Amino acid sequence: MKKKVNKFVIPKNNNNMFEKKQKEVNQLFKTKDYPKIIIALNELLQMDKNNIDTLNDLGTCYFDTEQYEKAIEYYQKMLDIYDDNTTALINIANCYTLLNDYEKGIKYTKMILDIDDRNISALLLLAILEFNNGNFEDSLTYFNKITTEYGKRGINLYKNEAEHNIYISAIISIVLINCEKGDYLSAKNDLVSAYNQIKQIRDSKTGFAFNDDIDSFNFKPGNKGIFTDYYYAYSLAIHKENIDEAIIYINKAIKTDEIRSDLYKQGAYYYYLKNEKELFRKYLNKSIELQKSKTARNINYGKYYQAVRIPEDIFAEMMNEIKNN
Fold first, then answer.
1. Do residues 206 and 195 make contact, with C-beta atoms less than 8 angstroms apart?
2. Apex CA 274: angle with CA 270 and CA 277, to 5°?
3. Contact 102, 135 (CB under 8 A)
4. Helix axes 16-31, 34-47, angle to 10 degrees
5. I want to staple 59 with a disulfide (CB 3.0 to 4.6 A). Which of 75, 99, 139, 161 is the partner?
6. Residues 4-16 as b or e (16 or more Cβ within 10 Å = b)
7. Residues 35, 85: Cα–Cα separation, whole Å
């Protein structure tokens, strides 16, 4: 990494006291007792104020406790030492994303791509941020870069489960953007690709023959989100031509993640279109209830499809009907 010599002090990692304190911090991290961890990390900083790992750990403590402005301070100190530290840049971009400051998030993410234009984490975050900023075409460009990059890897992609999941998520993301643009034909074509990729994961895990049944495959907890995303995207892509099938798929999505308020809202919209008032009210009330719940997953970050796909005038009608009954 590029080094700013004028601001860099040689770390004192050979100091026995530093190493002893570092081991203590590592044990404290297992307890997640952040006040104690922060005190110990600050003691490390007194021994070596420019230690990158210590600064990053402090930023992480404040990030994990949702003190994003404070986290940025420590990540920025990392940049003052190494101005091309992509870890610090992505962390700052993540903080600004959670602060809903998408412009600054985009700024720091683009700085990463100036250093490494194939950085998947940066491409993914930038695609999300551009979507949240309403720049669907730019978002689509970045998601296409991700699918192109992963597409080059061929069979090697399937050997890395995490990267394969990102690849599938990017394809589904393109589906969702095309739905946002009203290009349902492209959305449905991309869904076929996403479906086949999901089956690749299913078949590699279960050893079952490649077939047309993915519903019976129970993803482990870390992968269930792909099912949710696929079902949600499928419901959006077909709701204009087949509202009944859209309802089937939004309910499949809900079954995989029962505390997502946006899924119930989308379901309420479909039932509203069908004039099934009892179910419409049930789903919309559940969505409102979840939005108020501390356990709800409202998808404020890391997923960009929280953007309202329900036409504003119809959603206003839906809310009025709830209020009047």
1. no
2. 90
3. no
4. 160
5. 75
6. eeeeeeebeeeee
7. 27
Give the C-alpha separation, 95 to 84, whole Å: 18
Token pair belonging to 307:
């953007």
Q: Give helix 86-98 / helix 52-64 axis angle, nearest 10°.
A: 20
**DSSP of 237-288:** HHTTT-HHHHHHHHHHHHHH-TTBHHHHHHHHHHHHHTT-HHHHHHHHHHHH
Give 110-158 pLDDT, tens digit per residue.
999 999 988 888 998 899 888 878 788 899 999 999 888 887 776 666 6
pTM (predicted TM-score)? 0.70
pLDDT at 78: 94
- Of 169, 194, 187, 177, the C-alpha closest to 302 is 169
Per the structure block, which two tokens stand in for 83? 């101005």
